[in-house]
Design goal:
With 348 residues, the chain is an alpha/beta fold. The chain folds into two domains: 142 residues, Rossmann fold (3-Layer(aba) Sandwich), CATH 3.40.50; 194 residues, Dehydroquinate synthase-like - alpha domain (Dehydroquinate synthase-like, alpha domain). It contains 15 helices and ten strands. The strands form three sheets. A six-stranded parallel sheet has the order 1-8-5-4-2-3. The chain has a two-stranded antiparallel ribbon with strand order 6-7. α10 crosses α14 and α11 packs antiparallel against α12. The protein starts with 6 loop residues before the first strand and ends with a helix.
Length: 348
């Protein structure tokens, strides 16, 4: 394999501070982490404003300028502490600095701990989301669940979106509903290990997105489109969850429309409404706007999803009882029905 995807769990804040204080080390830290964890306000720390503008050529260029100004050398140890945006930006920098150097990743959000910290992808926005990037896995991944205690309710519950997606792919929908409906905070590590274990298994069989790994794009076709339509108001995990519901409805309509699958879809949509409510989205972003869920969302999906291959239709990952499969959906009436159904059942 190209990358080392071993993950160290149980890391303490003190261990991380000591690592950041090592000679010839420069650490990029999400500014939100610095607000809650002042122990990382160190001389060799570069603060990162974790927003989508940072994940652009201009934003990454500014971080590289700060990196150079901090006397970086080809042997400088790079550490990234933050969520997915910090990982994307700093991972990209590590992949191009002096033609590629090692870096250590410390994911701090539930979304990054349960999903994005493994896989080795770095992604930069340019015209479209995540259209530029490299495969550059971190040398080490260190997980400290203490960071989860300072997440907002919105960011915390959004973090479960990718784990939910995994369970849809594994046909474990009722397990997901039962688990998250009764979940108490503080027990995340078993689910982090479960989610990463599932993803690592797929990566070991298809590291470079040639086959099975493409199924991990489930929920992202319309998830990314919703992020774009909402001007990034919808957090990624929630967007993936809503996108997963749309994909499930399309799967149902284009597959066997049997009563069992429909009842399962109804149970999942009922769970979805309560799941979104737990994230206190009304406070963080307001209500879901009707204009985000129109026919135009299909066009946005075609333009914003980098996995589209041109031609007619919309290439999506769908699911049935046997698992996931890729399908080119040309029936736009079904797509419109799916968007309308999810908005009325879950988001309205």
């Amino acid at each position: 394999m190209y990358g080392n995807y071993e993950v160290q769990t149980g890391t303490s804040i003190q261990e991380l501070v000591e690592m950041c204080n090592q000679p010839n080390t420069i650490t990029f830290v999400d500014e939100n982490v610095l607000k809650h964890w002042s122990v990382f306000n160190l001389p060799n720390v570069i603060s990162v404003d974790a927003n989508e503008n940072t994940k652009t050529l201009h934003g990454v260029g500014e971080l590289i300028n700060k990196f150079v100004e901090s006397d970086a050398t080809p042997k400088t140890k790079i550490i990234a502490i933050g969520g997915g945006i910090v990982q994307d930006a700093v991972g990209f920098i590590a992949s191009v600095w002096c033609r590629g150097v090692d870096y250590v990743l410390v994911p701090t959000t539930l979304l990054s701990q349960i999903d994005s910290c493994v896989g080795g992808k770095t992604s930069i926005n340019h015209i479209r989301k995540n259209i530029l990037g490299t495969f550059w896995p971190p040398k080490e991944i260190m997980i400290c669940t203490d960071f989860l205690n300072t997440l907002s309710e919105t960011d915390y519950w959004s973090g479960w979106g990718e784990w939910i997606k995994y369970n849809v792919l594994r046909n474990k929908i009722d397990h997901t509903i039962q688990t998250l409906s009764s979940l108490n905070k503080g027990h995340e590590i078993e689910f982090i290990v479960d989610g990463l274990g599932y993803k690592i298994g797929i990566i070991q069989r298809d590291e470079f997105d040639k086959g099975e790994r493409k199924f991990l794009n489930f929920g992202h076709t319309f998830g990314h489109a919703l992020e774009s339509a909402s001007q990034w108001k919808i957090p990624h995990g929630y967007a993936v969850f809503i996108g997963s519901l749309i994909a499930m409805y399309v799967s149902y309509k284009l597959g066997e429309e049997n009563e069992q699958r429909w009842e399962e879809l109804q149970r999942f949509s009922a769970f979805g409404r309560s799941y979104l409510d737990r994230g206190c989205l009304e406070k963080s972003m307001g209500s879901f706007e009707r204009e985000w869920f129109t026919r135009e969302l299909i066009d946005i999906a075609k333009k914003s999803d980098k996995k589209q291959e041109g031609g007619q239709g919309l290439r999506m990952v769908l699911v049935n009882e046997d698992g996931a499969y890729l399908y080119n959906v040309e029936n736009e009436t079904v797509l419109e029905q799916a968007i309308e159904w999810v908005y009325n059942e879950v988001c309205k």
